[in-house]
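Journal club side-thread
Mid-discussion, someone asked how the predicted structure for our own chain would compare to the paper's figures. Pasting it here so we can look after the session.
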Amino acid sequence: MLGSEDYKVNDNNLDSVNKVYEGEVVDSDEFIDDAAESDEKTEWVQRHEEREKLRAKIKQRVRNSTANNEFFHPGKPTPKISDESNKQVAVYARVSTTSLEQTSSIENQQMFYTKKVNETPNWKLKNIYSDEGKSGTNAEHRPAFQQLISDALKGEVDIILCASVSRFARNISQCLDYVSELRTANPDHPVGVYFETENIYTLNPDSEQALTMHAMLADWESANKSRRMILSYDQRICTGQYQVVDLLGYRHTKEGELIIQEDEAKTVRFVFLALVLGKNCNEIAVDLSKMKRKTLTGKVEWSGSMVRDLTQNERRWGDLEARKSIVLDYKKKKIVKNNELRDWAYVPDHHEGIVTREIAKAAQLMVSSSGLLRKGVPELKVIDKGALKGYVSVIPHWNEVDSDEYYNACNSVYSDEELQKITRDMRIWTGKEKSNVLSMTFTGYEVPPGIVFLTNSMPSMTISKRGIKFNKACVKKLDEAEWIEMFYHPLLNSIIVRASEPESVNSFKWKKENGAALNNIETKAFSSVVYKNMDWYKEYSFKFRGILKERGGAKLLCFSLDEPQILVGNRSKIKASDNSDVHYIDYTNDTVTEAVDDNIIAFPSEWKGKHIGKNIIMRNNREAVLTNLSEDDIKEEGRPVNDSVASLLPDRQELVKELNELLQTM
């Protein structure tokens, strides 16, 4: 920048300045010369002169240069589809469905391009790659397309012919990415795609903008088609026009009816009946494969998952659920369960079922038991008379019976007056309610819970959130019985165990071949019921002392669930505590604020302090529940609970007979 000392205005340069302001054209050099009073030039003027000298030299060098093309080689001309060099040509054809109309479409595409390639002298047909019934939104799901790209990148193809951009891809990003990869992956051998409808050849540099525009239109059309399909489904559901398809056992008509196919229906009936009678999915799959029973597609090899899936379709028992799943992303083909994300409908008794709804439900519950119910659908029973009145049979692996089912079954055998008395007595026995007996002189006499004196030689039962374990002493007390039945009283918080015959559908094995008790009997379903009813903290296990009751030749073990020993942490690392190191902890969901981080044996925190036991009168009242036991009481079978799954099924012998008759015709 010029300072005041560097530039002084005199009369001469003032005149020059005035000429500029008056709009006259003045040469810049003349202006500078007029402005410079002395030989000393400013920095700006020096830079300007140097730049002008360089420009003059560049111009002079270009003017004086002579053409010398000894090493000049022109580049290749812009590629064209009509180049005369020999070309290996591939054709890509695609239709989105396998309908009859589009079958002719893909055949026409193949015939047209075969003729076109054969009539072009320098072209040789490499292969025709066809994808039938494949959407253009995701190239990964089109095997023929992927093979075409692979062959092209290996140099086996020079040109790819395709009817239109939308046949090549309906996803704009994938379309442009694949075209770019074909052009640039091997610069010495670029592969071009020629789109017939749009007259676009991708090796032509001028094609990029046109290709982008058409790819965008194809993408938009695909999105629009997806929206039209969603709207169409919405309208069909609202008007009761439900979409149906063929499945094993049924064929559909244009009117939306499902017609039973008798031979295939035999396979379906066999699966359901075999499940109800105790076979698991894998065993049934082996049987079907041996009998060479065909699937819907004609295959004769079956798997456990195929059998399981067959039982999950509501159409097999006559119902219809419309729109069970939806396409969440049409480009990625992400299909999810329709959890009320879009309109849906369930239509009971839509058509004739192959099996009854009751048999279907029982079969599904057998599937959910993971094959642990080897004797078929168990019978939920309740003892309705005698000293064991109200005890409900326990099926350890049966997911069908929840907490409400046990309570309802138990309550069903009592009158209202009996229920009120039992509820009040239990509140007294557990210390939640006071009784007039507390005013008696016996009040001060208490006895500690039996669990405090538990030893390994005494029968015990341990309940965890996943299973139940009985010790060897339990097996000895019941005369080494191999099979047992278990009953639960949700009001009295009590479990009883008695020996049983292996043929009983509700019996289960509780000891190993060597006579030792099983390490763990899987009872996840039943354990969740007990934990819920007792409000136990799920991270703890609970151990109980068994009391043997014997009448005549009959025996049972009784376990009171409100007198627990609490096992915390890894049971294999727990060491028995001596009397000087007794732990008392909170163990219910309402009381546990922070889980104990240790491997210990503990007792309920309410037992800590002066009162470690229960009033002797309360204890006597509780023991009286089982005092009047008779041999007949212990052997009492009970009656089936109304509306349980087993009670709604035909007699087991009838089911066996039906299955055998079915096998003779398959």
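Post-session note: Residues 89-221 form a domain with the Rossmann fold fold (CATH 3.40.50.1390).
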